[in-house]
Amino acid sequence: MYKSKDIKKVHLEITQLCQAACPMCDRNENGGKDNKHITNSELSLEDCTKIFSPKFISQLDTMYMCGNLGDPIVAKDTLEVFRYFRDHNPNMWLSMNTNAGARDSAWWTELAKIYNGKGAVIFSVDGLEETNHLYRQNVKWNIVENSMRSFINAGGRARWDYIIFEHNQHQVEEAEQLANEWGCEKFIKKKTARFFSTARNEGKEIHQAQNRKGIETVLLKKPKIEFQNSILSKEQELINKHGSMTKYYDNCKIDCKVANEGNIFITAEGLLMPCCWTAGRMYKWWHDDYRKEQIWDFIDNAGGTQGIDVINNDLIEVIDKNTLLENIKSSWSLPSISEGKLNVCSQKCGTDFDTFSEQFK
User: What is the pLDDT of residues 263-312, one digit of tens each?
Assistant: First the structure.
């Protein structure tokens, strides 16, 4: 797929911890109890200095924290890890995605100082005071506002990503105005792909949220047409052409987003994966045995988690000598998912049904 010398971007999941309980996030069951398969792993500054040498950092264009399960703001060493990267590459781009619902003004001010104009925070805020918490469960608006304003007022560059649901679609214009008032550089009306189930390979109209006690909360619904992810309307067309969405995934051409960017993903357990989407198939809460997922065939063939462990093994050697990345790439030429083509690659990088890219159009 690529060699270590070609890597220009690192996507770092620093933690599996999060104070929120978003109903469409894999770290919990529809906003309820925590995913039974995760261990709340977290990378420390010491871990990151073991994984990333100053020489490797110097070749990077970008390091960003997002991930699948946690939020960087709750990790203990987030500031220190960003500072470590900045100290060894003063020109690289640093960024993170966050729900903004934690940390005080001093923390956000320090983050802006570390970024020093060469980085940004993507604030994932899906509504205003009356609505943001309906999806971003347990996130307090007063903390969100303080986080965003503290970072921006300290010179930080901010983007506001707003996932549009039926319950918050009436506030899009007001939120965009507020983003401008606060000094956000961009306001993204995010047309979510969350109403397509990658577990069942089919679209859906609703998603029932619940709280930590298992009590039903909001019924999440699609917004009006103008705010919907337009690629979802191609589902029936692809079914008509191929016979089913599964057959489409068998047949589709894959244009790998991370290979094109020279991007790698490091999990909060310190494991090398090509991207967050492949890593995102590792611990699906609805399986009693998470190893039912196809991605584990590839991990096992690469020596198991020990073979892709970049805390106890050298990152460069794992990238260049382990078979995981090349085996995934090789699978794309196989005739079907059942014969070994990696399903998640078809789902996320199939050229005719790119739900991810369409969110930002």
Answer: 999 999 999 999 999 999 999 999 999 999 999 999 999 999 999 999 99
> Sign (positive/negative) of CA torsion 80, 106, 63, 355?
positive
Radius of gyration of the chain, Cα coordinates, nearest whole angstrom = 20
pLDDT digits (tens, 9 = 90+) for 213-269: 999 999 999 999 999 999 999 999 999 999 999 999 999 999 999 998 999 999 999
| Coil, strand or helix at 350 | strand
Does residue 59 form part of some domain?
Answer: yes
**Cα(236)–Cα(96) distance, integer angstroms:** 36
319 within domain boundaries: yes
Rounded CA-CA distance 219/131 in Å is 13
Q: What is the pLDDT of residue 316?
A: 97
- Report yes or no on 89 lying in a domain: yes
Please give the tally of structural domains in the chain: 1
Residue 46 has what pLDDT? 98
Low-confidence ranges of the chain (pLDDT < 70): none
What is the C-alpha to C-alpha distance for residues 215 and 211, in angstroms, rounded to an integer? 6
Residues 6+ apart with CB under 8 A from 5: 59
- Which domain, by its residues, includes 206? 4-98+191-229+257-336
Residue 33 lies in a domain: yes
* CATH number of residue 205's parent domain: 3.20.20
What is the rounded CA–CA span in Å between residue 67 and residue 11?
Answer: 7
Closest CA to 335 of 249, 266, 208, 245: 249
Question: Who contacts 321 (Cβ-Cβ below 8 Å, separation ≥6)?
Answer: none
Query: What integer best gives the mean pLDDT of the chain?
Result: 97
- Contact assessment for residue 155 and residue 117, using Cβ atoms and an 8 Å cutoff: yes
Q: Does residue 75 contact residue 44 with C-beta atoms inside 8 Å?
A: no
